Sequence to fold (1779 residues):
Amino acid sequence: MKMVVAVIKPFKLDDVREALSDIGVQGITVTEVKGFGRQKGHTELYRGAEYVVDFLPKVKIEAAVNDDLVERVIESITKAANTGKIGDGKIFVFNIEQSIRIRTGETGNDAL
Amino acid sequence: MKMVVAVIKPFKLDDVREALSDIGVQGITVTEVKGFGRQKGHTELYRGAEYVVDFLPKVKIEAAVNDDLVERVIESITKAANTGKIGDGKIFVFNIEQSIRIRTGETGNDAL
Amino acid sequence: MKMVVAVIKPFKLDDVREALSDIGVQGITVTEVKGFGRQKGHTELYRGAEYVVDFLPKVKIEAAVNDDLVERVIESITKAANTGKIGDGKIFVFNIEQSIRIRTGETGNDAL
Amino acid sequence: MKKTSLFGLGIAALMLLSSVVTADTAAPAAAPTAATTTAPATVAPATPAVAPVAATPTVAAAPAAPAATPAPTINSGDTAWLLISSALVLLMTPGLALFYGGLVRSKNALNMFMKSFISMALVSVIWVVVGYSLAFTKGNPYIGGLDWAFLQGVGLTPNTFYGATVPHQLFMIFQMMFAIITPALISGSVAERMKFSSFVVFMTIWSVVVYSPLAHMVWGEGGYLRDLGALDFAGGTVVHISSGFSGLVLAILLGKRKIGHNDDTRPHNLPFTLLGAALLWFGWFGFNSGSAIASNELAVSAFVVTHIAAATAALTWVLIEWVMYKKSTALGLATGAVAGLVAITPASGFVDPIGALAIGFGVSIVCLLGIRLKHSLGYDDSLDAFGVHGLGGAFGAIATGLFATKAVNSAGADGLFYNGGTELLVKQFIGVGVAIAVAVVGTLIIASIIKLVMGLRVDQEEEQAGLDLNQHGEMAYSRLT
Amino acid sequence: MKKTSLFGLGIAALMLLSSVVTADTAAPAAAPTAATTTAPATVAPATPAVAPVAATPTVAAAPAAPAATPAPTINSGDTAWLLISSALVLLMTPGLALFYGGLVRSKNALNMFMKSFISMALVSVIWVVVGYSLAFTKGNPYIGGLDWAFLQGVGLTPNTFYGATVPHQLFMIFQMMFAIITPALISGSVAERMKFSSFVVFMTIWSVVVYSPLAHMVWGEGGYLRDLGALDFAGGTVVHISSGFSGLVLAILLGKRKIGHNDDTRPHNLPFTLLGAALLWFGWFGFNSGSAIASNELAVSAFVVTHIAAATAALTWVLIEWVMYKKSTALGLATGAVAGLVAITPASGFVDPIGALAIGFGVSIVCLLGIRLKHSLGYDDSLDAFGVHGLGGAFGAIATGLFATKAVNSAGADGLFYNGGTELLVKQFIGVGVAIAVAVVGTLIIASIIKLVMGLRVDQEEEQAGLDLNQHGEMAYSRLT
Amino acid sequence: MKKTSLFGLGIAALMLLSSVVTADTAAPAAAPTAATTTAPATVAPATPAVAPVAATPTVAAAPAAPAATPAPTINSGDTAWLLISSALVLLMTPGLALFYGGLVRSKNALNMFMKSFISMALVSVIWVVVGYSLAFTKGNPYIGGLDWAFLQGVGLTPNTFYGATVPHQLFMIFQMMFAIITPALISGSVAERMKFSSFVVFMTIWSVVVYSPLAHMVWGEGGYLRDLGALDFAGGTVVHISSGFSGLVLAILLGKRKIGHNDDTRPHNLPFTLLGAALLWFGWFGFNSGSAIASNELAVSAFVVTHIAAATAALTWVLIEWVMYKKSTALGLATGAVAGLVAITPASGFVDPIGALAIGFGVSIVCLLGIRLKHSLGYDDSLDAFGVHGLGGAFGAIATGLFATKAVNSAGADGLFYNGGTELLVKQFIGVGVAIAVAVVGTLIIASIIKLVMGLRVDQEEEQAGLDLNQHGEMAYSRLT
Ligand SMILES: Nc1ncnc2c1ncn2[C@@H]1O[C@H](COP(=O)(O)OP(=O)(O)O)[C@@H](O)[C@H]1O
Ligand SMILES: Nc1ncnc2c1ncn2[C@@H]1O[C@H](COP(=O)(O)OP(=O)(O)O)[C@@H](O)[C@H]1O
Ligand SMILES: Nc1ncnc2c1ncn2[C@@H]1O[C@H](COP(=O)(O)OP(=O)(O)O)[C@@H](O)[C@H]1O
Fold:
């Protein structure tokens, strides 16, 4: 099993979620994060002065999937989260050594 | 060393934390997350109309542990977080290649 | 590629970020977390009674980096986040099997 | 380039305005003291002096005094009540900002706040410059003149027509607070997508060419609906119908928000919405009861029916929810309360507690059903400014024709259910019709021109990122410690 | 099935009620104008007309007028002050909602808000239908009659017994605001676990069978405690003791919340709590000072001592904390202020600034210690409605027996420390005792029946998930952008 | 050890004080009734009785009465307005807490709230004990005496000098609310780093040795600036200059916050700030309009110009932003509004609507530019208490010398632009100079001593962790459900 982690733009969450669901990913876990990267932060105003906020709100998606689903997951995310603009985010893939469904105690692919 | 990651129901956090502490896990890191899974979201009301919210608040626990503690950790979490109802969550185990305690520079198991 | 994950004290975020930027780390992802560890929580007051809050606000930093940068990243974080006091936090290193830049589809080190 | 065209637009609007205005302002806008004697003459028994009635039911002596009173005297109690009422009505606009601000996603929260707060800054100045004058000088039946522009002649002695016992400036500032909240109400229909600059320009023009004329027709000396005898004690038509229907038009012109199927569009902070509802309720006592322009029996009656209608509507709403879903929502209670307050507004100086119970009960049913229209008809009245203020205001105006009774206000009229026949009811329908017409036509024209000149809507990327950041350069909350 | 039994319960309660009521309502509830002359007669020198004293200490001329006044006249200043006071007291309930709402975990925030807001909707209607009548018609010493049900006969001319210079409806609506906040206060004892529906049913019955009778006894014409001479200027017994002790009983019947050893139960939003405390403080000026039912010296005195007691209690609380922990908490300051306001409530028309300092100082010590009781005795008075309102109210009522002075209010009495002996003190104890008895017995009966019929508490799963979601179908905040 | 030295400090301060005080208090502080006749005598035509003018422009009959009035009578309307004004001014302090609290990082939010709320507790008590007496008994030109300590002699009959138609206690409590908010304003300059205990000690001493004397000089009977004829209707010098400049001094003494280059120091909750601004605006009507100490024409005029100045300043600020950045910020609107309110404060009883437009327009330019000073000069006036209140207050005081007109207040004077020449302007500059001097010198001394004795600043670790936790043992929000 692999854990596919994607950091994406927040407003793309819904699209990505649907894309994953379409290819049979049954569950994901989502975290609000702040991203620092090539996409520079934005300027904000404070009492007549401008200043730079150097991070951006992003959303991190974690999807544990069967090995043979990994490529399609990556593809789906890449497609759904793409705007073509800087800051679209990254996908990282990790190896999962074990997985367990707490409710049933099932392990491995059955747990996903 | 392994990183045991568990996504559980929020109100089980306290039980899980105590269970882990009982078996000697010295530290954990906790994140609030939103979970999408088999457990369907709930319906909410908005000015006389019903609509579905398709995620659920969950809590993610990360515990870095000694290899030989892994099984007991899994067992403890499985037991403490179990309600027998759908949505109890998952446990994923990852391999940690290195670990360092910032304060002392200790590494490996000593860092946990 | 490796994922270097550090859990640090919140007010050290800026220092760490700058230190990483200095050694060429182009991006990081940051999450607010609660830490339980050796550093005991603090006491708070509620209507004339004292009670213990057993977690502490921490910040989790995730930096995906080129293999040969790992040691310098660890060093930088260790230095920048160090106060010498308990609770300074941990660094964990994971192996990344694949990485993709969503915008371009680049993979591997090019994606970082 | 855009600036120039906007400037041209402003000039055009002003020219249009002055052509309407000048016709009549040449005629004697007259010494304000003369006004009292004129007013009763033209309106006679059939046409009551509506909101600011000098003669309240129990003060029988009032009509006897006119000739003897050389200088009207200030009553300190009346002044105190109108001072605090003015402050209360002002507070409603921040209350509205909280109400609306809590309902949107956090990335658009400040934008909602700003679309209300800006009215406190902008419309106040407009009111001083021309708004009050256009609304309340005598002028013609449709609009006042410019005699009181820059508040020239609006002094500290009473204007006996509008309020014989309080300084004229006090009546002016009390009315200003109404002018402030009205365009702010509209922002509920355009939430999460309308450009701030366009909204500000819209608000500016709308205040001058829709609000002031309508206020004149309903409350101004010689105003068309006032002289007709249509009753609107505290602004059911002027404030609520006008803003609600204008909101509807804008919502249609703007189009729907871009929202994904499962996007989380839930209110980001319902406690803010509840606090906002509370401040609205609190301030509404000034709005309705202050409209008696005196601290007297009529003020008390208006206060009492206002509260009863709000409570009844809130209760009705949550009971309906309970019947439907076995749950009662906080937003439902707040929405019901506001709907009740909206509906009682035109009626508040004319109905008794039983009428208030009926109006409160009815309006929640109307609004709860009315809000569902948007799902079937497909317009995106995002925060239901039309559903609550447009429909609720119309319901209240019509209900005034049913429940009004001279037992409460001898200067009012008897409604259908109080042996008054359909006479008042017909007038109320005319009032509602005129208000809708003015609002819809006015908004259509203003918004269409703005759409052409500068656009109405933020672009898609801005909408996705949230309006706070790109329209205001700020975010409502910073999360990292 | 459940519905039927509930219905039966309602019928039973109403029957019980009417049997108590009808005995006396046959007797002449009398023309309201006659009341003034009767009242002084029966109460004579020993029995002061408490809250609504027409004759304030400095207005020596007042007693001369009685025969000459054919129709009482409205005073615009008094009316203005009572209008705004009514609005202020209404605002206290949302203030309370913020105060309580901020103290619970975010998953229960809306539920706390709703348990206050629903009172604004529900109790208002109850008050119109029967509540006011049961509390303030003459009736017997323990409860009024139904003459004023649906506000029949409650008009815009003054009721000279309750307020000779303001419309009767104004007195009615001012009192309504007290009836609203009182059951809302109880919700602090049952936080995070009581079913919303059960709370609503409880509130409905409690308002009719506990609040109205108690208000009648203390403030109503011919009321038992009023005629006895027990002093309660603005509701120490009626509002605070009654709600605090009822809360205690409910908390015990409900049992403790299910909370793990290290569960984070800290207040989720203390700024809300502070804002709530501020709105309470602000509104309390209307509560206490408005209870003079006039804009006169007594109102000023009540205003001043109210503020001083609040400030002193707040200061005392944080000083104690400082001594104990070298820290001063925001919640401590807010709690102290509210405790001070509670304690001064019964005394506010009878004590001078020095008395206010003493009461403010004393109540914080009492409440700070009293709150610790729950840890040793094991009841879960979650947000300390008993600890602050029950104990603080009792302390204040008794302290009135110590610090009252006729120098402030000639219609009052002298307390123990002002050469009055123990006479007043004894009466105060009786007042406290009666209020506790009525509240405890009433709540026990009502809650036990509800427990049987529909249950009091959400099930464990609902408690864990938070009451907002399953009781109201909403969440207070949505976090994802 | 520390405690002892602090105690010594207190004693020293009190001794200093009494030496100033005792010289004059031996002289006849006089029967308050005699005061009226004295006051006009000494101040003659050139020296107007400032804020509490008994004779308002339009009440021509007033001067005729003096001899005939044996006992002054309470006016219920005036009393009602001053009662509610007092409540409104109190509400400003929580408003300020929200305004400031929203601007800091969440880890310091409660600390900001507490630095305002503590003033409600602490300064109230100080005011009762000595503050009011030092400020308002006759004393010498620089400070009053101790005759009214513990409010002895401050009763429910009017003090004819300060307010002939309202109970003396009412004037006292109205003034108390000013004394409360003033030191709270200072907290904006010391945000996120000053020890709570040190701030409390500072506030205590400052209130007694800076605020009371300054209030005496400006408003007290026989006060130096009052007799000089410097105008300050509602506290431009006493409240805003004094707090703003004291804040500046403290900010410099404290040094800058430890903030990393890219640390996120953005406001943690701008909706709180906006709500705070709204409550300030709302309360400011009581502040300025209440300062007429009557519900009359002057009160109305003050109300109107207050609102106009606030609106104009808010509009000006966002327009400047729009020109500079093509964005308008919510914080800018709020800041502009507050700046406008600050600037109109001293002028509010003396200028007309046109003057208000000018003052509102001018102050936003001054403050917007003034705030930039801190970036170049390097002091950390964290939330711009100096930039807004210090500069805005000074601007307003001087502008009063330009725009004042006797047409609004015959007891005032004509400013430079109203044919009054430079006479008033010069006096205004003197007033500003004195206020700055007293504030700067007073703060320097008090703060230096406190720095020595107990330190001013939290240590670095505490600063990093946030002041809420280590100063108050609480956190504003708990996040985990
Ligand atoms: N090396 C990295 N390690 C962890 N997260 C990263 C890294 N680089 C980028 N990110 C995350 O991805 C987001 C987008 O990256 P960015 O460099 O801005 O644009 P792009 O994805 O188009 O290259 C960042 O905001 C950050 O959250
Ligand atoms: N494939 C997955 N990858 C990552 N997280 C998952 C995955 N499946 C489920 N989760 C997380 O686990 C939670 C519980 O899963 P769910 O399918 O609802 O019930 P159960 O754990 O009983 O199978 C989800 O809300 C989600 O946060
Ligand atoms: N075994 C662990 N697994 C995951 N996170 C840990 C673990 N131990 C500690 N942490 C995280 O690191 C933080 C600091 O650890 P702590 O034991 O308090 O101090 P130190 O880092 O000085 O040893 C904790 O608050 C927690 O967030």
